[in-house]
Specification:
alpha+beta, six-stranded mixed sheet, four-stranded antiparallel sheet, 11 helices, 52% helix, elongated
């Protein structure tokens, strides 16, 4: 029997009762599993990446009487030490960039270490340079009111390369764009050199110096650095933190949900496949009388099962994508803009599907061998 004949026989049998039950069940369980996997991935991979890529999570405010900057610089894994009066963003009106469709605030942040921010074309800004700026690939039209963000009116930052703007009589030129999602920065944040930032900050903020800001080279080295600071009798506080008490339960819950989804899929698909095969015993016997071998019957049944799964996967993926877009762009826009990149974990999806398909293949084969 050629492939065309097998497909012809299989397609005619797709609308039998148990195939429809199996398809509906798979659509439901795939949507649940995909949502759980996406949330789980967000609270593991994305937040772990954010801890390193968003520099604020590697910055600490440190203080002690007669603090010694040389002492701080001598501590391993500290990349930079600078006066805490230069902490924070410089807020400027969207009028500064003169972008007609942009409504809200632009944030200017300093580049302390040259390689901390790489542009789309792998350029860097020298912390001691002047007049250069990196702005994001995507400008959000309403940066100050996240609940009103309209993603369909998002502006392409590349259109503003070489555009010049002035802040406190200092001219800047946008020399390139950077990926704000990759670096987990706040929306509409442009980077300028530390040298320029200090000059503007002296005019804008006029903060008093109370201590130092340290920047750690890698988030995983945080404990080592903090231990050293304690030994040197420094008081310290994190510039940005993530509540692990909130993250761990969500990770555990979604991880458990994925595991439960697999178990339910195994049990339910076994029952449906068993019932289906028992209901078509006569069909299998007819095929045997017509000269079909058990191997050929297995092949027919597995093709049928694969088509059902792929159709269910297609429908489930479409429904999930709609849910994903609604959550990312309409429901949790503000939270996600501050908490990391909410990406679809394609590798985890593929792994889940492979596990389920392989299981169903072998279960179906075992049941048919017993039925025939």
């Amino acid at each position: 029997m050629n492939i065309k004949d097998k497909l012809s026989i299989t397609i005619k049998r797709l609308n039998i009762k148990y195939n429809i039950f199996l398809s509906l069940f798979l659509i439901f369980i795939l949507i649940i599993a995909f949502i759980a996997l996406t949330i789980y991935s967000f609270y593991t991979k994305s937040l772990n990446e954010m801890l390193n890529k968003n520099i604020d999570y590697r910055r600490y405010s440190v203080y002690k009487e007669n603090a010694n900057i040389n002492e701080l610089n001598s501590i391993n894994h500290i990349d930079a030490v600078y006066d805490d009066k230069y902490l924070g963003y410089i807020y400027v009106s969207n009028n500064v960039l003169n972008i007609e469709k942009l409504d809200g605030t632009i944030y200017l942040e300093p580049v302390i270490i040259e390689n901390d921010i790489l542009s789309s074309s792998k350029k860097t800004i020298d912390p001691f340079s002047t007049g250069q700026a990196f702005c994001p690939k995507k400008f959000y039209p309403n940066s100050g009111t996240y609940d009103k963000i309209d993603i369909f009116k998002m502006l392409n930052g590349k259109e503003y390369i070489n555009k010049k703007f002035n802040v406190e009589n200092k001219e800047f030129k946008i020399i390139d764009t950077y990926d704000s999602d990759f670096y987990y920065t706040s929306k509409n944040t442009c980077f300028i050199s530390f040298n320029d930032y200090k000059e503007i900050s002296k005019i804008r903020n006029k903060n008093e110096s109370q201590g130092f800001i340290i920047q750690i080279d890698n988030y995983k080295n945080t404990k080592k650095v903090l231990s050293k600071l304690t030994n040197y009798n420094y008081e310290y506080s994190a510039i940005a933190t993530i509540s692990h008490d909130e993250i761990v339960p969500i990770k555990n819950t979604t991880g458990t949900l994925v595991l439960v989804s697999i178990i339910i899929t195994f049990i339910t698909s076994y029952i449906i496949i068993l019932k289906k095969n028992q209901s078509v015993k006569k069909y299998y016997y007819t095929l045997k009388i017509l000269g079909y071998k058990i191997k050929e019957i297995n092949n027919l049944s597995n093709i049928e099962l694969l088509i059902i799964y792929l159709l269910s996967l297609l429908i489930g993926s479409i429904i999930f994508t709609i849910i994903y877009i609604i959550i990312k762009y309409f429901i949790a826009t503000e939270f996600l803009s501050q908490s990391g990149s909410f990406q679809i974990p394609y590798v985890l999806f593929a792994l889940f599907n492979i596990i389920v398909i392989v299981y169903m293949y072998f279960i179906n084969k075992i049941i048919i061998n017993k039925t025939c």
